[in-house]
Amino acid sequence: xxxxxxxxxxxxxxxxxxxxxxxxxxxxxxxxxxxxxxxxxxxxxxxxxxxxxxxxxxxxxxxxxxxxxxxxxxxxxxxxxxxxxxxxxxxxxxxxxxxxxxxxxxxxxxxxxxxxxxxxxxxxxxxxxxxxxxxxxxxxxxxxxxxxxxxxxxxxxxxxxxxxxxxxxxxxxxxxxxxxxxxxxxxxxxxxxxxxxxxxxxxxxxxxxxxxxxxxxxxxxxxxxxxxxxxxxxxxxxxxxxxxxxxxxxxxxxxxxxxxxxxxxxxxxxxxxxxxxxxxxxxxxxxxxxxxxxxxxxxxxxxxxxxxxxxxxxxxxxxxxxxxxxxxxxxxxxxxxxxxxxxxxxxxxxxxxxxxxxxxxxxxxxxxxxxxxxxxxxxxxxxxxxxxxxxxxxxxxxxxxxxxxxxxxxxxxxxxxxxxxxxxxxxxxxxxxxxxxxxxxxxxxxxxxxxxxxxxxxxxxxxxxxxxxxxxxxxxxxxxxx
Length: 482
Prior knowledge:
8-stranded mixed beta sheet; single chain; alpha/beta; globular
């Protein structure tokens, strides 16, 4: 009996996905560039299962049913291209290659097009959930060659996480790089969520002077509210974890954050598409700032920086902070969906935003209770341009506004950096302001560069230039896209 699917790459994610597939009755052929890794896997975690090994790509191909389905769980970039180049001569028309890594979506666009010319289908699939998700049910976001989806769908939906209504957290996203784009936005929102939580933690620790046990209790309680989510849940676990000496481990961790690039890609794409992804971009910059540890230590001493204690009823502040965190989190998702909408329009992907919310409802790092509300919002209005306009989320934003402003203002007053939470508030203020000062900005551009402007008393699309000093000419530089 031949295998249902082959998986290349036996690092943690690859191994756990294979074991997950085996649990659901699929025969998997496992391959790794180093034969020792295959032996270790077969004699270790895969022992006693129906998983079989392949010690060459030819053996892998020979052991698979047609159309062959081969999933790459390897490092994104040149490694993926290298495996594709080696596999193509061994495959037949109609076979399927799947990239399950964190690939930048233009690479997926390129690979779909190149392989289509050879008659081979390509799927670029985001997989979220980490080690545990891969083993017991991740969120899976496939896109690429639509002809390949019916062959992969039963496997992917079987191994994916399920909602409380037993709906698979996996569905077809769209053509070309749509799946990897949605995964990229997922990771951008993940950056934002994590940064918002750390800002709340610092406000409690440095502003309110709370102990780790107190903060842990707060996050446990918050997880029983609309903030119920994986990241809030694990934060309570982290704050309660003690090192071997009985001290809280988190305070022994160096405060320099790493990143692998997906948050940066999200920000770059937002800039390219003209979408104000302020919160997520600030979260990326916060990680960059954290890496300047030595400079920060010197600067604190140079400026004599001291954070003031936040005065007042601690419980009142904790509730205000909860509301500020919730409102900011909504903005993080709202901006992410704005970016996906623009990308869908530009690329003709026809994304189903309710389905995206469903795919994120379980298994993934940003899974949270209110993703069900996001799905409902897009079921009611598939063309919803701003998530905060939905009645449910509008109500939360309006009810949280006073507390949100109070926390943001106090953080500025006492010197606690909260870049993502405050930028989220500033974004909403800008988004809900009918007239912004960009009129003055356009006048400045026209003054020094003759870049022209539109007038409120003239038809849109008609451009004007003013000789502001009487010394310049009447020739304009160029028009602009508004």
